[in-house]
Amino acid sequence: MNLPNKITLARILMIPIFIILVSVPFGWGSFDMGERELPVSHLLGAILFIIASTTDWVDGYIARKYNLVTNLGKFLDPLADKLLVSAALIVLVEAGIAPAWIVIIIISREFAVTGLRLVAAGEGSVLAASQMGKLKTWIQIVAVSLMLLHNFPFAFVGLPLGIIALYLAMIITAYSGYDYFKKNWHVMRDSK
């Protein structure tokens, strides 16, 4: 249990705090953004989400720089990302901010790739995240952040960048899932 893995676990532990912050009606008020409002709880949730998401870069940087890459880290890091983004997307659906069908596509891909990773682990190998998978994660993080912020600051100019980013995230997520299975199909084919 090295430092990068502890940071990854901290990211996982931030998820329930994030969910409570965004889901529980604390009645802290909201900020007026022209035709829209940004609840304080969503702003605080966005800040926590962004901090948690940033730990993904921090743990990876430390692991690579100090040669602390482990199989546990290769497994936990993408799992933490999936849990954080999935929780945020589900909260956005519950709040009526994100379309459920897009979230279902994104989360379905995450389950499918996690299943492939579990099959690989059963065969004694660990499938690290691909560059396409990392790009997918960062686009998801941008989309979720913008949507938690109710498209601030782009709401002032009428640019729906949050939903555009979410559509882009869905497309790249689906494609990266296809790419991941294409490159690692041998794991399923050769499994016992």
Automatic annotation (TrEMBL):
Subcellular location: Cell membrane
Top-tier EC class: transferase
Molecular-function annotations in GO: CDP-diacylglycerol-glycerol-3-phosphate 3-phosphatidyltransferase activity
Key words, A-Z: Cell membrane, Lipid biosynthesis, Lipid metabolism, Membrane, Phospholipid biosynthesis, Phospholipid metabolism, Transferase, Transmembrane, Transmembrane helix
EC annotation from Swiss-Prot or TrEMBL: 2.7.8.5
Keyword match Magnesium: no
Pathway: Phospholipid metabolism; phosphatidylglycerol biosynthesis; phosphatidylglycerol from CDP-diacylglycerol: step 1/2; Lipid metabolism
Stretches of the chain forming a coiled coil according to its record: none
One Pfam family named in its UniProt record: CDP-OH_P_transf
GO cellular component: plasma membrane
Catalytic activity: a CDP-1,2-diacyl-sn-glycerol + sn-glycerol 3-phosphate = a 1,2-diacyl-sn-glycero-3-phospho-(1'-sn-glycero-3'-phosphate) + CMP + H(+)
Biological process per Gene Ontology, one example term: phosphatidylglycerol biosynthetic process
Membrane-spanning parts: 12-31, 43-62, 83-107, 154-178
Membrane topology: Multi-pass membrane protein
Superkingdom, taxonomy of origin: Bacteria
Family: Belongs to the CDP-alcohol phosphatidyltransferase class-I family.
Function, as annotated: This protein catalyzes the committed step to the synthesis of the acidic phospholipids.
Name the record gives this protein: CDP-diacylglycerol--glycerol-3-phosphate 3-phosphatidyltransferase
